[in-house]
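Crash report, auto-generated. Payload:
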Amino acid sequence: MRSLAAVGLASALLVAACGGGAATPSANPASASATVAAPKPDIKIGLATAKSGAANFYNPQQSNGALLAVEQINAAGGIAGAKLQLIVEDDGSVRDQGITAFKKFIEQDKVVAILGPTLSAVAAGAHPVAQTAGVPVIAISNTGLGIVGTCPYGPCDWIFRASLGEQSAVPETVKAATQKLGLKKVVIIYGDGKFELDDLSIFKEAFKANGVTVSKEIAYTAKDVDFAPFVTQAKGETPDAIVASSLAGAAGKILDEVAKQMPGKRVIGGNGLNSASLLPNANAGLMVVGTAWSKASTDKTNTDFVAAYKTKFGTDPDQFAAQSYTAMIVLADALKRSGNPTDHAAVKKALEGVSSLATPLGAFSFTADHDVKQPTFVMTVKDGQFTPFQ
Amino acid sequence: MAEQLYNAVFIGSIYALFALGFALVFSVLDILNLAHPTVFMLGAFIALFVIGTLGLPWFVALPIAVLVTGLFGIALDRVAFAPLRRRGAPALSSMISSLAVTLIVVRLVELRYGGDFITFPAGAVPAFVFRVGDATFEGIRLAIVVLTIALMVVLTYVLRRTQLGRDLRALAENPRAARLLGVNVDRAIAATFFVSSALGGLAGVLLAFAYNTLDSKMGVPLELRAFTVMVVGGMGSLPGAVIGAYILGFGEVASLVYLPTELRDAFAFGLLFLVLVLRPTGLLGQKSRDRV
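Recovered output after restart:
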């Protein structure tokens, strides 16, 4: 009892000391606030990103891109005198943790807008939380179906997308590959995840539109470790090229097997192949992929971004850094034009008005469905770098 | 067809190589070591460290990785299993404890190498490809197939014909009785974990060489399959696990060739289910007293 009493007394003294300290300025109403305007409160923005879990390799680039943009915006005076404050939460690459992060942003942090989460499957759970609360979201790396426009959970008019969707990138890739490689027949090897299945249907549509026959579709699962049998099976169809509707890990193995079993054939892929981790692969030069960003773009906004990123973080940015950076630039533009940067409805309306904004991704606008409107870069890999597919 | 047969043998060998170490610990100690996929991953990353950071060739990296993972296995037992064993904790505690080790080690590896997959430096991995007609064969894959069979034979011989094997079998039957009979139980347990983890590490290095790619979660897809082939082969039977692994490998490739791809897993696991219905103790399953 005596020790408890001692702890209680110590706590009371501590509280009194802290409280007393905090109360001092208000004891004198004629304080500094009478002569110097109080700084405007920070404008809080949430970033939900996969710092852990299956998609954690998109970090730290995704966080770094947003952080760089916030620092540049604040250094340039912020938004009408208020600083941006970036609050980063780990979505864990899983739906439930993404939902928790969004709830924290909305209920506890009172953010004005949210960027993220990293994966489309996590977004499918987290975005409805923001939609219900009426908080604008910019999806920075969700390329699957049902993210904007028509969404499976109902209206999604508070959601915007700054990541080039596969519906836009894949048809451009297929068109370029068909023209330059003279494709007549392809085989699609696809995974069983949401992203891969979405890509499968988009690829099939795109090849049909270009008059190319898909002679076989071969499914693999996330549990498969060896891709030799799938490529052997595809080889039996004697296709002009292989299509990998997959994420980067599986794509690397498919590239290796195609190089061994089908020398000279190309591998056409969606955004899953657009990964810096594939660049060291000796067979990465076989890929043809549509991307949202090209480091090689000589547009000044892009070269400035690449230089600033490299100076701050000591490494080149990748597409995920470019997209999160762009989303923050786009959001800042909307906040400035909104008239009231803390009002969610005003910010949403201003986001809808973003038009031909200069960004590292090129001239950036939102469509009526809140999807990104930007150029597609069809790329391959040469000397360990993404380069335009000629 | 010949190529697909070869693919099936290779896949079966991968499953078998991974399952051998997993089955060994279970057969001797009745422990489902959920850290085995982590040991597998660790072997690959140790090889990467030796090659990429120390600049040594692959044939030096391989034995170092095997030795270090073997020693890691002994440490794993001392930290995660031995304290629970001394207190007579239930089997579930051991599983959770090994899971905790997994989470810690995976996170440590990710802190050093990141969560994305990475490759060995160019030219560092043994690469030897030859063609027969239209078919392609790789030296490293052939080595994995041969090594898997050889290891199964050697392990079975050690367990059946050597003093260590007799000690392990006594331990599997009754640890207390084994101790009373003069078996150095602590040494036998340490040997079990060393061999099991060294096998896991070897499998990790060889697979990373075969694919020239490694990541912190590379053992996860193999875990469920290893458990499955262990059950089908007969819990605790090493030759059973290897046979189960080849059945699964052939089942998966055959279903890819002959069935719509959506039915592939259903066919392969259906085949295994059938085996269990016909032989509930697994293909080479025995009562616990006859194990090892």
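Post-recovery validation: The longest strand of chain B covers residues 129-132.
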